[in-house]
Amino acid sequence: MTLERYLARIGLTETPAITAQGLSALQSAHRLAIAFENLDIPLGRPIRIDSESVFDKLVLRGRGGYCFEHNRLYADMLAALGVPSRPLLARVRLGIPAGITPPRTHVCLLAEVEGRFWLADAGFGGSNVPPLPLKDGVRARTADGAVHRLRRIGETGMVRGQWLLERAGPPAATDGRAAPHHDWQPQYTFDLSEVAADDLEQASHWTATRPGTRFTTLHVASIPQAAGFASMVDRELTVHHPGGTDQRTIADPADYAGTLGAVFRIALSEAEVAGLALFA
Q1: How many angstroms separate the CA atoms of 9 and 31, rounded?
Q2: pTM above the 0.90 mark?
Q3: Which domain holds residue 95?
Q4: 195 is a domain residue
Q5: pLDDT, tens digit, for every residue of 135-160?
Q6: CATH code of the domain covering residue 22
Q7: Residue 280 placed within a domain
């Protein structure tokens, strides 16, 4: 029943096959249906990353979440399908100046399908990147016009991480963190070290509570679209599509709540939006 409700939430009428193609179909459906968002943080609500809480929020209540929520749900549903996976912690580098080592504030998954390991990530606030085989130099083009590349850059345990996911493409097809050029930029780095449940709790707590960070100072929502990408940072909405990029400022709480529902598929009432203090 849990798997059936999840599949209905992401718009799949059949259970995907346990193949590379099935994994890609599942992840893409998840990304297109469940938005990335941090709105519980400015609402003063705790971020809970246990399986029951995440399923209730993202599936039953029609909300989005950030990476620790998305990839908890994704890992649970992979397990229900018989696909083994384990979490990896990553350092987000998109928009971070060179020479700075950011903390491990992103979780992704290492999944095993058809005898191969795959980087599987349903929780990064960016392009609809498909699962990537853990192979140096593999590339994937996404519908928003970007290209992603996975590179092996060091040994396990190195501070830079063992693997680097890079992005090249239109800056408008991100949530504002990309540099203003189309060239290769680091998205995140990770290694294959074991990650315990308490590591995830610690990283999520830091992400949700550390003063002065992106998640504690901004209101963020984003979602890949079939042929583009949409993001909303505070009251600024950006929708990138094949014909160009549309931008506008959200007018009032009703507009904000309506946009959350229509563009990002996030169920948040106008009364809850009023609690965001965006329109004081």
Answers
A1: 11
A2: yes
A3: 2-274
A4: yes
A5: 999 999 999 999 999 999 988 778 77
A6: 3.30.2140.20
A7: no
